[in-house]
Every structure is written in structure tokens, then in C-alpha cells.
């Protein structure tokens, strides 16, 4: 099997049987190195539902923008045309959401004509570069941005040749830890094998761009640094172990937490058998066999998530009535701390002998600002200083001070509600 970041992630997070089903279904995915042409194959969008579709749309539309830029053609028409094509393959609202995300991204980021966008890299078993569809390919990946460019490097204090792979993440769950994830291991290994000799690059740069956060996480390795190269080789060895494990697996199914992340549960006999069992025995198992009950809960949660995703479109038109109940998005009031730093000033105003000099106040303000305490933390402060602030009880302090420090806003939440309400 030819591996890619997706297949290895499926093997690591789900199970070996899911890897087998992925291999059977991918067919000619990305034959043209464009996600748009292989939408049905889900090249690496394994989050499911709306997040997957919007991510595919974003990458396809950004790729269209990069091609237009290289050809010195207008960008916006190319982006809109791509969005319209995608709207025939997916929920149009999700295609347009991907278009808006790409449009917003380009307000703060420019297409670099020196770089290759949505560029495919392929390697054989010895990690020698080969053509994308070469029979001997053993590992391949699509890089959102790939290339070598020259720029001033602040750490080297000189102009340097920088080989870079950037990965655009469109979800909300992006974190710095993703720099050590499976996909990042693949990208850093590609940089090592293509540019680690130092013949055409001085610095190897891996970037993860959190699109919705406008935030960038990155790792840098210097080709002439023994420490950098040792770290890169350690990452490569970790990836190699995962590839070898996938190559030698027995493809046995394994029902467990990975099922909630799996796109192939409908084709998995073990999952379907467990689902049938869960319908009949989950309550009894919860008392006699909690481990078995947890497995049942996993498969049921998976089916509930699928149903919610299907109902999402219907719920946009309004609540759904079931007998005497309604299920849908209803307004709910939610309190929010207006400015957490004001809590620090309040503390020093009322804390008496605990108050210190102004620089301590500035330090505490900075600390609180980055800690981002919520309503519960603020209420704990009010309770601790209730009497110093002139309130008879902690309850009174929380009630009155909340009017000053909290704001309220309406936020729709999924919930059951009586039809008559």
C-alpha cells in the first residue's frame, strides 16, 4: 500500500481494518494533485461533516487563487468559479463558507509566486523522490505550500536559503502540538530527504498555519547543526516505525475510541455487530461489564454524531417537532467576563495589607490577561473579598458585583424543549 499522512493517521488513531478500508476506497485520489478532483475520496479530511467540507473547499479555492496569481490573472473570478464547481459536489453552504474563509485569509496573506501550492511529493521505500503515480511509490503527501526561497535569517544573521513546507489548518482545534503529529512528521521527513544535504538549503522550515486564528506555529532546523539534524532524524525514525507497523499489520478490526473518528464504520462488521449488541444490552452491561459498556457507548456516540450532522441542515429552518417536544437551537443567556484585568485592580483596592507596588499590579494584570479567567474564577474573587467590599454575604457580593464585571449575551444551544413553551 502506498502510504500518506492520512493513512498513517487512520492507522494510528482508528485501527488497522480502517486502514484497509481506506486503501480500498481511495482509488485514484489526487491523480491530478488537486483535492477538488478527488472530493469523494476524502484525501486527508478525516474530521467529518461540516469541518471536512469547508476545509476541502478552502484548500481548493486557495489553490485556484495561487494558479491565477502565477498566470497573472484576476484572483477573485478563479476563486468563485472553483466554489461553484464544489457547490455541485457538496452542500453549497459549506462550499461558500470555504470561499469566505479563503477570501478572509487572503486579506492578511499574499500568494507567493515563488512557492508551489497543493504540491504533491512522492517517495519510494528508500525515501528517494519519485513521480506521483510511480509504481514504486511508498509514501506520498500533498503540501499546501512547498518551495525553496532566499531570505534574511535572524538567528543566522545572514541571508539564507530556506526550504519550507506549510500546512494550512482550517479547523478550530489547531494547537502547537500538531507540529509533532503524523502529518508534521511526514513533512519534516520530506524536507530532510529532499534538502538535508545542504546542497540547496541552509534552513528547513515547517509551518502550521491556523487559518481561523491567524496564527502560525513553526519548527526550524539548521542543516549545518548536529543538534538540528539529530532531531530531524529522530522524527524520521519515529515515522519509519509507524510505516513499518502499517506495512506488517494483520488489518484486524478493533472497536474502541478510534471508532468516533472513523469514516468507515458502516463497512466494519465488528462495529455493526457491536452496534446491534449495544442496542440490546448496554444498560445491563453497565452494571456487570463496564468495559464492554464503554465500547457500546463509543459506537452509539458515533451514530448520534452522524445523525446530528445530517439534521444540521434541517435545524437551520427551525426546531423539529417530535410529539409534544421540540428539538432545535433556542436562545439561552450566557454570562461573560467583560475584562478580567479589572479583577486585579479590584483585588488590590480591597485587599488592604496584601496590596503591593504598581509594578506588581502590572505583573498581575499581564498574568490575568493571559490566564483568561471565566465567570467562576471571578465569583471566587468576589466571595473572598465580599466583606472588604462592603457586602454582608458572599451571595450578595456575587450578585451585585456581577452586574459590573459580567456581560450577558444570547447564544443558541441545542436542547429539548416542550412544544408549548
Description:
The longest helix is centred in the last third of the chain and has 27 residues, at 290-316. The strands form three sheets. The protein has a six-stranded mixed sheet with strand order 2-1-3-4-5-6. A three-stranded antiparallel sheet has the order 7-8-11. The chain has a two-stranded antiparallel sheet with strand order 9-10. Helix 1 runs antiparallel to helix 2 (16-26) and helix 3 (49-70) crosses helix 5 (92-108). It is globular and about 75 Å long. It has helices spanning 5-13, 16-26, 49-70, 75-87, 92-108, 182-195, 226-247, 269-288, 290-316, 341-350, 358-371, 375-384, 394-405; strands at 116-123, 129-130, 139-153, 158-169, 203-210, 215-222, 320-322, 325-330, 333-337, 406-410, 413-418. The chain is α+β, with helices and mostly antiparallel strands.
Quick rundown:
This protein is an alpha+beta fold. 48% of the residues lie in helices and 19% in strands. Mean pLDDT is 83; it is low at 27-48.
Share of β-strand residues: 15-25%
Main sheet summary = 6 strands, mixed
Mean pLDDT: 83
Form type: globular
Number of H/I helices: 13
Order of helices and strands: HHHHHEEEEHEEHHHEEEHHHHEE
Q: End-to-end span in angstroms?
A: 57 Å
How many β strands by DSSP? 11
The radius of gyration computed from the alpha-carbon positions, rounded to a whole number of angstroms, is 26 Å
Main β-sheet, spatial strand arrangement: 2-1-3-4-5-6
Please identify the structural class as seen in this structure.
alpha+beta
Q: Please identify the oligomeric state.
A: single chain
What is the helical fraction, as a range of percent?
Answer: 40-55%
* Contiguous runs where pLDDT drops below 50 for at least 5 residues: 27-48
